[in-house]
Structure prediction request, 559 residues.
Amino acid sequence: MHRLFNPSTTRRRRILDGPWDFLTDPEDDGRDAGYYETFPDETDRFDVPAPWNVDPDYYEYEGPAWYRRRFELPQSGTTRIAFEGVCHDATVWLDGEHVADHYCGHTPFEVVADLAAGEHELVVRADNTRDERSIPKPGADWRPYGGITREVVVESVPAAFVDDVAVDYELDGDRADATVTVAIRNEGESRETDVSVAIGDRTSTRAHTVDPGRTEVEFEFDLSVDRWSPADPTLYDVVAEVGEGDRRDERREKVGFRSVAVTDTAILVNGEPVEIMGVNRHEDHPEWGHAQPLRLQELDLGLIEDAGMNAIRTAHYPNHPRFLDLCDRRGILVLEEIPLWQFDTERFERESVLDRAKTMLAEMIERDRTHPSVLAWSLTNECENQEQGVADVTAKLAALARERDDRPVTLASNRYHPNGQKRWGDDRCLPHVDFICANAYPGWYEPGDYANVVATIREDFPEKPIVFTEFGAGAVYGEHTREAQKWSEEYQASFLVDAIETFRETDYVAGFTIWQFCDTRTDSRNFLKRPKVKNNKGIVDEYRRPKEGYHRVVDLLTD
Prediction:
């Protein structure tokens, strides 16, 4: 199941987990050869969901690859085929017909078709090539996983079915003035039918004419609610229905009611300052890559909570929706972002790049806006923010985010350098966000100390609180030196403690997220040559074995 709860009790559903026919296409001949009509006989078998780079035979492969899977439908009718994630450029054929294109490896897309009973063939071309227009760009400091990395779900639905459910609200004490918008997709003829919404213990039903295409129906509720908070993560069921009898369709979501605001020194949840104490977490593991099973997601969150932390920055892309369900349930705060990592004006100006970025941001917000754990939307990470062209793009992305949702907007800047080559005041993008996410590594990549970093940011932006979103030091698991030298566990542990103590004693620092939770695979072609081709700044290693730094953080935050 791709969610922690059943998203519909009316739909006949099949999840296409397991082996698919698979072959790589390094010369990109598959389209001209018509693989979507006649799949080659000589193929491998590869499990879905999984990135192909977890297999030693394909560990370094970057390029297009092809998948095929046959499935049976017991009866004819409208069929929804949902892809939760294909890295990064996906093209889909159904029974030899081209039915979908999608760019972004971490947001969903779907195909809706009227299919006959019997066997059908699904063919997917997945391409993780990074080039001058790709997001992420070549050299991004994480493993460029490719393939069908999240679930593929086949659902039988009525001709008119619930396509989406959105919940907007304003809070006044324990009252919520809520608007639930039900989007209905109708593949048949116009008809009048019942549409209803249940939220908490309230239900509203009305007759509505559903025309072909997409129709939105709004419901207003005045609710008495218990607010969601990290200490008390209360969730409510939202159930939307359309139709009657055997033509009834249902879609379920969960929502938590809370407010988020920003002052010049703090981030407020329900009007109270919250101290963000967390980690950056890549969806990465030696066996699963970022196609992670539930048990691993729960293990990671358990280690994070046991360390006294309450927040996660999803570096650097939208995480699996089930992981966000877990954060909702446990009261873990989330900073979520799209993979605009170290872009400059020239890259943004290339054909389709800005459109791709805007689509990624819009799809992330649409998918995750009901999650109360998501505290803010992060637009970019370590881009060339001193350039006016990057600032212009940032302004457009910030406007899009605010149009789609009322959460705060932020981005991660690394405009610090002790010799004055960089200054936070040179950052032309930070005026467009609500609070500052700062990435800085004094004492690791460059000389300096965090007290100086804190002071220089505040000098340039006195009206915005700061979250230190990246800081840390590398440590090879099991490396111990008497002198606490670089790359030892002792060096990392002392580094983290000194930095966190500096942040926590500064009243305008709203929190921190350590770089990073676990050691992760990186790209061997990256300009940063890392020991064992891993980013070793994790406070646990790639197999989740704690380092000394993890234990020191536990002592510091749970004392």
Notes: The chain has a mean pLDDT of 95. The first helix runs from residue 30 to 33. The CA atoms of residues 133 and 389 lie 16 Å apart.
